[in-house]
């Protein structure tokens, strides 16, 4: 049976088959009920319906796959992992099973396992190679990402995201800009004069921090926008710019800035957590509670890893 590929968009109004003692009809009724509840976000009820299906037909691949998806949406990743591994043993080359396994591991920040599955996807569909580059970047495996980017470019394939990754890798391989302490007795005006003369990154950061503390969001916006042009691989500038946009209630623009800037975070777990926290703030303002909670959890997990 191939129920796992069923389009669930119209399931709310699905007419069930007439009740019957026939096992197959019972199975189909409860299976489609599970799809309906999954479609409206009632994952616990969907699981209840699937448990009935499992009693009727134990070890059904479609049912096990649906179990995995519903547990995933409930963020019960151990159960989701258990069921996806079960179906992969039966159908190890199934593209959709492999793709979902990758999602499960990525959601848990297990990028090594996610990369293993993404490689299998690329073998079947080279068009998803850019996703493998993204995972290499998230896993801080930049040399492997660069090799893949070079191969894609040789094949005439590029994108704005790949170009950002390449820029980030090149910056990573160059001497890092070190922020030196600026004399503590310099006023904000002194800092601005110094910055206008030499456009030093360490001075810019001092200005941005002063403007943020003073809640001068208009100035924060002006200086952070210039910083994005002059220092496009420095993630702190993206954070500062997003804060000026949040003050202006330009939440979608702030999200775009944060999603771009996070790609440039290298070996700094706490800074990466700050990006996710700021994304959570934006999604709360946009009334996207699920996205807000997802980003909050990512930030918490990163801070937990940092404290281990």
UniProtKB/TrEMBL annotation:
Q: Which PROSITE patterns match?
A: TPR (PS50005)
Note the InterPro entries from the entry.
Answer: TPR-like_helical_dom_sf (IPR011990), TPR_rpt (IPR019734)
Tell me the ranges holding the TPR repeats.
273-306
- This protein's record includes keyword NADP: no
The record's keywords, sorted A to Z, are: TPR repeat
Protein name from the UniProt record: Tetratricopeptide repeat protein
């Amino acid at each position: 049976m191939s129920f796992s590929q069923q389009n669930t968009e119209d399931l709310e109004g699905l007419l069930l088959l007439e009740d019957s003692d026939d096992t197959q009809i019972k199975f189909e009724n409860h299976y489609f009920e599970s799809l309906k509840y999954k479609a409206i976000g009632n994952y616990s009820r969907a699981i209840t319906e699937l448990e009935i299906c499992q009693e009727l037909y134990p070890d059904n691949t479609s049912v096990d796959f649906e179990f995995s998806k519903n547990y995933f949406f409930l963020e019960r990743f151990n159960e989701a992992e258990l069921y996806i591994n079960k179906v992969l043993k039966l159908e190890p080359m199934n593209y959709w099973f492999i793709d979902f396994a990758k999602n499960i591991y990525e959601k848990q920040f297990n990028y090594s396992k996610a990369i293993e599955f993404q490689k299998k996807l690329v073998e079947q569909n080279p068009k998803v190679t850019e996703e493998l580059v993204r995972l290499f970047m998230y896993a801080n495996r930049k040399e492997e990402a660069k090799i893949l980017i070079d191969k894609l470019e040789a094949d005439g394939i590029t994108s704005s995201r790949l170009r950002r990754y390449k820029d980030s890798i090149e910056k990573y391989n160059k001497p890092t800009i070190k922020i030196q302490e600026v004399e503590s007795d310099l006023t904000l005006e002194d800092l601005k004069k110094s910055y206008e003369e030499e456009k030093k990154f360490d001075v810019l950061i001092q200005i941005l921090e002063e403007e943020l503390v003073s809640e001068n969001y208009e100035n924060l916006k002006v200086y952070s926008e210039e910083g994005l042009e002059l220092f496009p691989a420095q993630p702190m500038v993206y954070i500062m710019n997003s804060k000026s946009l949040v003050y202006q209630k330009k939440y979608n623009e702030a999200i775009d800035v944060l999603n771009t800037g996070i790609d440039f975070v290298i070996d700094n777990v706490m800074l990466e957590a700050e990006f996710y926290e700021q994304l959570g703030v934006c999604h709360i303002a946009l009334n996207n509670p699920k996205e807000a909670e997802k980003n909050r959890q990512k930030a918490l997990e990163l801070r937990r890893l940092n404290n281990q």
